[in-house]
Amino acid sequence: MKLATWNVNSLRVRLAHLSDWLNATRVDLLALQELKLTDDKFPKAELEALGYHCYFSGQPTYNGVAILSRMDSIGAALEVSCGNPLFEDEQKRLIRARFEGLDFISAYFPNGQALDSDKYTYKLRWIDALHDHLQQLRESPACKALVLAGDFNIAPEDIDTHDPAKWAGQILCSAAERERFQRLVALGLVDSFRAFEQAPKSFSWWDYRELGFRRNAGLRIDHILVDERLRSTLSGSLIDKGPRKLEKPSDHAPVVTELAWPA
DNA sequence: ATGGCCATAGTGTATGGA
Fold first, then answer.
1. Is the CB of A13 under 7 A from strand B?
2. Each residue of A159-175: pLDDT tens digit?
3. d(Cα A117, Cα A150) in Å, to the nearest integer?
4. C-alpha–C-alpha distance, residues A51 and A53, integer Å
């Protein structure tokens, strides 16, 4: 089974890229972020025609998350919930879909903007509330296994940045953010990309400016954390740079993790 | 050269992204 996450930076603009990518990869579950459209504009019919069930939570202009599940493999969700019951939030950043034996979450973590910004305070509070929510969820008997996929807006370690000196202590790399990433892992999750040997300078986001992609001046901020109860089934993980090379790309590349599961 | 790009809303130019 292939799990994936992709910040598409406007689903309206990226629909053709997404459709081509789904046809090429046929991933089983996909977490999408930054839809930047309202639910009435979600291209449900187009994606269903490709063979995917769609669950989504959008708003005008900003944010917006979705989960796609392949009809002919994992099938439809048993239940879906949007947002965090422990955190009032007008911003649409979280959606969870339950499947047989697996709770799959698409998360769009706040960016934070700058360490002295109110947005940074919001980011830390948002993550703390997510932690508490996931702790409760993961310990509930109905949750057999948890996968947290999305744009975390956190580069967990220096090797996840193209220039550790430049990024030291900066937004996305601050000690408080990295500590929170580790707290999420400590819930009993595995950073699936790092469960495998990877090429140095592997990133999932590159700035549109400064020829970021051509210079590979990027960050690894998109992650798929897999329940350690599924650790033995992990069979691979990669960042697919293909879509980032197209005309008018998203600034993020999709991340894919493969499981030999269900057995 | 400490900024460069892109999407949105919407028709000027601001905000947000990371």
1. yes
2. 999 999 999 999 999 99
3. 23
4. 7
